[in-house]
Amino acid sequence: MRDDQYAAAMRFIFEAGVLKRAARTGWWFAGVRHPETIAEHCHRTALIGMILAAMEGADPARVTMLCVLHDTQETRTTDLPHIAKRYLTAAPNTTITADQVAGSPPAVTDTITAAVIEYEAGETLEAVVARDADKLECLVQAVEYRHQGIDNVQRWIDSSRAALKTASARRLADAALTGQPLAWLAPPHPGPVSM
Fold it and tell me: How far apart are CA 127 and CA 163, in angstroms?
């Protein structure tokens, strides 16, 4: 590989760092002053995707990769809230990704481009699961914000729940809606000791 290919791959890595600072802007409409970043959203989306993949019989590694990459284009378009999409037309995510990884080593370009194409097409089981992970993460975040006193989150809960395709995602959504975000802080109940 040539030095310029390494430099191109490094440019993508540096660019992805912007996601650690870029906010998920739709939450501002609900009254969240400091919403999570796109990177924080992608991190938990990847964890949810891995869990959903195991439940649905999909490839957890592939789903996790799709989840990690699903919003990387927002370094260039930002996180456009749904209402903005009525008035603005952004380039397709596949086009943005192609620009982001242009000049990288061919294996890098091919891997990232293929993953984004797969996610955007939404046809494979892995893409369906990854898309559910994205919607479920939004629902979970809305539930957490509601528990923190933000009242205007029901539209995010409803639209996210309605978009879920897999049975496992719907069951997890129901568990999120009836659960407590900080329940994990309680000590575990002692169960029977297996020998």
Answer: 14
Angstrom distance (rounded) from CA 6 to CA 13: 11
pTM over 0.70: yes
What's the rounded Cα separation, in Å, for the pair 40 and 113? 22
Query: How far, in Å, CA of 40 to CA of 79, rounded?
Result: 13
CA angle 102, 96, 12 (to 5 degrees): 50
Nearest Cα to Cα of residue 27 among 81, 89, 104, 87? 81
As given in the structure block, the two tokens for residue 50 are 């891995």
Tell me the mean pLDDT per 10 residues along the chain, length 195: 94 97 94 96 98 98 98 93 87 96 98 98 98 98 96 96 98 97 87 65
Using CA atoms, how far residue 161 sits from 53, 177, 178, in Å, is 18, 10, 13
Token pair of 194 as six digits: 């297996």
pLDDT at 39: 97
Residue 49's Cα: distance from chain center in Å?
A: 8
Residue 68, helix vs strand vs coil? helix
